[in-house]
Design brief:
Elements (H helix, E strand, L loop, with lengths): L13 H7 L6 E5 L5 H15 L7 E4 L3 H14 L4 H4 L1 E3 L1 H11 L1 H4 L6 E3 L1 H14 L9 H13 L12 H19 L2 E3 H14 L1 H10 L2 E4 L7 H11 L5 E5 L15 H8 L4 E5 L1 E2 L4 H11 L11 E2 L7 E6 L2 H17 L7 E5 L5 H10 L4 E3 L9 H14 L4 H7 L9 H14 L2 H11 L4 H21 L4 H12 L1 H5 L4 H19 L5 H10 L13 E5 L8 E6 L16 H15 L2 E10 L1 E4 L2 E4 L14 E5 L35 E4 L3 E11 L2 E8 L6 E5 L5 E3 L4
The structure holds a DNA duplex.
Length: 724
DNA sequence: TGACGCAAGTTTTTT
DNA sequence: ACTTGCGTCA
């Protein structure tokens, strides 16, 4: 390949050029963080179009998020002429499957107007199932049943084939069967179904499989390490003939095994695609040398990885900053102050990102940022589309499309209040069993029992639905329908109740209406699909001058000049639920690795000495992962006294430890007092202070090896001894 | 039928 | 600390 020849290869290093121009057979690009792998993937697409004379509609590119898909499309639009970028299929597995199933709904055997049931909807269905099967929802928690079912689906296991080893499994199998029936009865598909049904469609209809595999001549996948079994099978079905699969992966960034992702798909790829060309991308363009070295030291202990020798041409950079805070509030204050300092030194707020393991941790950080009047934007959290007012409005729209959706029906039949109570609803549910759905039962009731109280209350609701349905048949688009619903139910007056919260809710509704208005002519079913598959509405506000707050999971694929990783404590990272098995622990380590490698110039690691769980504050030990970062790379800002012995079992969250919090204790020690420590022996108290509502004791031990140490009086094995 | 008060469970991570 | 679900009462 003549490297000066092609403008598409300009500005790429030798490894990247080789990756872009690799054979059109199966290719696996194993790429380190910050190696420009998404850029390589994008250039590869352009390369196939220009050098292999691929038609744009022959390209199928799978990204991990909708955001990544949008960015890739925008990039391609800049690189290519005209509307080429629009003709390509670029999206997540879920989005691509949803569209395909809509088109091939007849062959797949369900309604073209199927609805996508999100996590909340799934939970509602499962609660119904648990009730129907007379199960105890304490022993069989709907959420954990759903979890088991999701894993079964990812492995393409049907309810009938669900492996039953225990009684619990048997219940899961029954719930699974019933869940699928209920879902289909509501013309609903959950996220997993989108994948599973597409695979089934291709397996059962060889002609369709043939059709799509011929059409999608060039299949490219980003973040391949996070594909699950169903996704892998789908790729195999689509590339069975031509084998033009181009996968980009990094095993060290596999962080989604809990939802069925299996990085061993990389090994499967090697077995299933003879002639697979493997290319390593080892040059990092993102991070300073110190950050890269620290990240590599951190990830090194993990087994089963392809060793990559990452290097960068960026300068050495500053050491990482390790900060130990007293509690989460102080940790957050430290972060806020540091950001303010950085800003005064010339950085922008948008250069900074603050990461954490669990969404619950954002709260303390938000409070500190608000207090410091630092603007921030929260990624994830309570998703826009799962807010109550939005879900309610969407339920109305779903009912227009599909009145037999009982979940939506029950959600909004009495929102806003229209005098339909438990009794009426219960009779609708019972009638629904025989008539097929609550909606049909309602129609029946209005006919047969027209004078009853229930019928009187239901009639306006039924009339509204009929009216909207007629509008849709006449060709009304989403914008029209949304406006019609808002007007008919008097939503504004209902939501704007004078409180700030009410105002905020109404603003959310307006935001949704704006989304609908942006796409005139958009069909309802497409709008509802997009809404279910897209997490956030504020994608336009991405350029705002604000600090970004996000979980380590949602940090994947992003980069920031300055990164704070907070809550580096045992029980949090690694998370307490991940301590049981080595592979879960390895995934926690990868999660930390992903976070570290987001940083370009500065990386802060923080942990707290105490952390609150469920409003209960308990001591916290620094994360074991910190021990794997060579001290030479760390600049320590401040050290707090460290517990000599854990007072609690770190592996178990505080709320699970049936340990009543001892009442607040008065000061137990005074200077000059003789004490004995279980480990350090005899000593004398130098100082005892009450700080943050607890007693910190500083003891000088007679055994010179121990020297002077500070403990938390309530937790240290320290006793006063009588003097003789 | 709806409002209110109390008990219980909750926190991994997301398409 | 916070939400959610359930039971009692007007």
């Amino acid at each position: 390949m003549n490297n000066s020849a092609h403008p598409l290869l300009a500005g790429l290093n030798a490894q990247q050029q080789a990756a872009v121009g690799a054979s059109d057979g199966p290719v696996l690009v194993l790429a380190g963080p910050g190696s420009g792998k998404t850029r390589v993937l994008t250039h590869r697409i352009a390369w196939m179009l220009q050098e292999q004379h691929a038609a744009p509609w022959q390209v199928l590119a799978v990204t991990f998020t909708n955001k990544a898909a949008r960015e890739m499309r925008e990039r391609l639009a800049r690189m290519l002429a005209g509307d080429t970028a629009l003709q390509m299929s670029i999206g997540t597995f879920h989005a691509i499957c949803a569209r395909l199933l809509r088109r091939e709904a007849d062959a797949a055997g369900f309604s073209r107007n199927y609805l996508i049931f999100d996590t909340d909807d799934q939970l509602a269905v499962m609660k119904q199932v648990v009730k129907d099967l007379n199960l105890d929802d304490k022993r069989y928690r709907p959420a954990s049943l759903l979890n088991a079912i999701s894993h079964a689906k990812n492995e393409l296991t049907s309810p009938a084939a669900y492996p039953v080893a225990t009684y619990y499994d048997q219940v899961v199998a029954r719930a699974y069967a019933r869940y699928q029936e209920t879902l289909r009865g509501n013309e609903g598909l959950d996220f997993d179904d989108l994948l599973v049904e597409t695979v089934k469609l291709f397996q059962e209809h060889a002609d369709l499989c043939e059709k799509y595999s011929q059409r999608y001549r060039y299949v490219l996948v980003d973040e391949f390490q996070d594909t699950n079994m169903a996704q892998y099978l789908l790729l195999r079905l689509l590339t069975g003939e031509h084998r033009s699969l181009y996968a980009v992966a990094d095993e060290d960034q596999s962080i989604y095994s809990w939802r069925g992702a299996d990085y061993r798909n990389i090994t499967r790829l090697r077995g299933d695609y003879p002639g697979l060309v493997e290319i390593l991308l080892e040059e990092n363009y993102r991070s300073t040398q110190i950050i890269l070295d620290a990240a590599q030291a951190l990830i090194a202990p993990n087994p089963d990885r392809t060793i990559k020798r990452l290097f960068t041409r960026k300068p050495q950079g500053l050491p990482l900053t390790l900060h130990e805070a007293y509690d989460e509030a102080e940790e957050a204050t430290f972060v806020a102050r540091e950001i303010e300092t950085l800003r005064r030194a010339g950085h922008a707020y948008s250069d900074c990102a603050v990461m954490y393991r669990t969404n619950a941790q954002s709260r303390a950080l938000e409070e500190a940022l608000v207090y410091a009047t630092i603007p921030y934007r929260l990624v994830g959290g309570t998703r826009f589309y799962s807010r109550r007012e939005i879900k309610d409005l969407l339920a109305y729209l779903r009912l227009i499309l599909n009145p037999d959706d009982d979940i939506s029906f029950q959600r909004v039949v009495n929102v806003p209040r229209r005098g339909i109570g438990k009794t009426t609803l219960a009779s609708l549910m019972t009638l629904g069993q025989t008539h097929g759905s609550c909606y049909k039962a309602m129609l029946h009731l209005l006919q047969s029992d027209a004078g009853s109280r229930g019928a009187k209350a239901l009639r306006p609701f039924a009339e509204m639905l009929a009216e909207w349905h007629a509008l849709r048949v006449q060709g009304a688009d989403v914008r029209d329908l949304t406006n019609a619903v808002l007007a008919a139910i008097g939503y504004e007056g209902y939501l704007r109740d004078g409180t700030d919260e009410g105002e905020a809710r109404w603003e959310n509704v307006l935001a949704l209406r704006a989304v609908a208005a942006e796409a005139p002519g958009l069909a309802l079913e497409e709008f509802l699909t997009d809404v279910a598959l897209v997490a956030d509405v504020d994608e336009l506000g991405a350029e705002v001058q604000a600090v970004t707050l996000l979980t380590l999971h949602s940090a994947k694929g992003l980069e920031f000049p300055i990164v704070f990783i907070t809550g580096l404590e045992e029980g949090l990272l690694p998370h307490s639920r991940s301590l049981d098995t080595p592979h879960e622990l390895a995934e926690e380590r990868r999660l930390f690795y992903v976070g570290m490698t987001r940083a370009e110039d500065r990386l802060y690691l923080t942990h707290a000495f105490r952390r609150s769980w469920y409003g209960e504050s308990s001591p916290a030990a620094p994360s074991r992962f910190l021990d794997d970062i060579p001290p030479a790379m760390l600049g320590v800002v401040r050290k707090r006294p460290v517990l000599t012995q854990p007072a609690t079992n770190w592996n178990v969250p505080a709320w699970r430890q049936k340990r009543p919090e001892p009442p607040a204790v008065a000061q137990r020690f005074a200077p000059g007092q003789a004490v004995r420590h279980r480990r350090f022996g005899d000593g004398v108290v130098r100082e005892s202070v009450i700080e943050h509502g607890e007693e910190l004791v500083t003891v000088l031990f007679f055994d010179t090896g121990a020297g002077e140490r500070t403990f938390l009086a309530t937790h240290a094995p320290l006793e006063a001894v009588s003097q003789h």
